[in-house]
Amino acid sequence: MSRWRAGAVARIEVDGVLAARGQVGVSGSDAVLDRIETGAEFRRRGLGGLVVGALTSWAGGEGARTGLLLASADGHALYRSLGWAVAAPASTWRGSDGVEV
Fold first, then answer.
1. For the chain, what is the total number of helices (H) and then of strands (E)?
2. Residue 24's domain is classified under what CATH number?
3. In the prediction, which pLDDT does 57 show?
4. Could you give the angle at the alpha carbon of 68 between the alpha carbons of 33 and 48, nearest 5°?
5. d(CA 54, CA 46)
6. Alpha-carbon span 55 to 94, nearest angstrom
7. Domain range holding 71?
8. Is residue 23 part of a domain?
9. Per its UniProt entry, which superkingdom is the organism in (predicted)?
10. Is residue 34 part of a domain?
């Protein structure tokens, strides 16, 4: 069993307003990126790419060799432009208690 190590958070503010953010954790040689978000008024400025770049750089320094993330359809173009490729389709499941996993 591999241990999940502490992660990192990247935030970009423009004029004191949170414009883009994301977080990453490293498990073994995998970096798991999560919550990569850019505010609607800040899109198409390269901020999402800066966040992903900062997170993957940090994760590489922690020994990660593979990046993993779940992306919305809105994020596909960003990740493709950064050299990422779809590894597998994903689906969201909801338990009988209404909690999505």
1. 2, 4
2. 3.40.630.30
3. 96
4. 45
5. 12
6. 29
7. 4-81
8. yes
9. Bacteria
10. yes
Which H/E stretch holds residue 50?
A: helix 47-61
CA separation for the pair 94, 46 (Å, rounded): 34
Whose structure tokens read 């490729």? Answer: 85
C-alpha torsion angle, residues 69, 70, 71, 73 (rounded to 10): 150
Q: Is residue 62 part of a domain?
A: yes
Report pLDDT for 3.
54
Q: How far apart are CA 25 and CA 8, in angstroms?
A: 7
Q: Write the pLDDT tens digit of every residue in 44-97.
A: 999 999 999 999 999 999 999 999 999 988 899 999 999 999 999 888 888 887
Would you give the end-to-end CA distance of the chain in angstroms?
22
Number of domains in the chain: 1
Q: Is the pLDDT of residue 2 over 60?
A: no
Say what the pLDDT of residue 1 is. Answer: 43
83: alpha, beta or left, given left = phi > 0 and alpha = psi -120 to 50?
A: left
Q: Is the pTM of this model over 0.90?
A: no
